[in-house]
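Here is an idea for our session: we take a single protein and study its fold together. To get us started, please write out a protein record for me. Start from the sequence, derive the backbone structure tokens from it, and show both lines together. Go ahead whenever you are ready, and we will take it from there:
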Amino acid sequence: MPEYDDDLRLALELADAADRTTMERFRALDLVVETKPDMTPVSEADKAAEAVIRAGIEAARPDDAILGEEYGLKGGGPRRWVVDPIDGTKNYVRGVPVWATLISLMAQSADGTFRPVVGVVSAPALGRRWWASEGGGAYAGGALGETTPIGVSKVAALEDASFGYSSLSGWEERGRLDGFLDLARKVWRTRAYGDFWPYMMVAEGSLDLCGEPELNLWDMAAIAVVVQEAGGRFTSLDGVDGVHGGNAVASNGLLHEPLLTHLRPRD
């Protein structure tokens, strides 16, 4: 039995509770939305879902630390849960169904760094969920309750690849727009899905590569486990494996080096 099976079961139960909380307020006409200091929106549903998840972790794993987007870090030690209660809040508050709750467990490695070992990505408005644990493979399920093992594509040429991204502005701000546009011209197809979704499509094999130029740890921890356990690769734009680079690219592995080459800053 993979080492983190019990933690994965807990994460799935926490996602169930979060889904009930978020769906109850999705498209509510009286939804309360505030603006955070970084000028991004936060809804009452974000706060409520994170509170539900935190309460579940504190009850089941009282010795574990918790880092959440809305309420910060609590606790310490070698195990840390990382939570984004609603990834895609801007979609959520506009009634767009492309948003998800991201729940990850990170474990401390021998060098002191933390790596994600459990990931659950739950998108109840889409009727989809993805999950994985280190050494246990990656899976997806739908509204009918089915569970399917997932894996990345075998596409080996950029000319045959489908590329997902978020927006153009971030690439321009970081001096990577020229490379991004060159990549977009090179590949077979591009689509701006945004947030968690393109990473899950890479894990399922319906996209071949994707990336975002600016991300937080809670945006990446859960999705990285799913991509990697599906056979893909997840790195920073500088090619460093893991979730600590402040940005991310994901691929089926076969296309990762060409992807990184195109997205390097231009002089």
